[in-house]
Amino acid sequence: DNEKHRDDLIKCRDEILHLQEQVKQLQLQNEGLSGEKTQLEDQISSHKSLLETQRTSLAAAEKSREGAKRQKNDDNRNLHRLELENQRLRAIVVELEENNEI
Description:
Layout: H1 2-101
């Protein structure tokens, strides 16, 4: 009976040692995963900052594009107005030249 208890005790001790080794391995894995988690969090933060910078840049480019579009429209209106004024002045010059010929 003592022999059986002794064998059971040895098995339990072996199992305890095995479980302690597994706990150590899991702790090492956990430390490694914690380090990876920190790195990933840093990457996420960096990517978020980059994304925000890109959003800001995109908004500025859009604002600039809208400004350029408005300027182009203004320039086209001015060009049309100047072309009409040029036509009017040419007509006056032609009329004056015709009057001088008479």
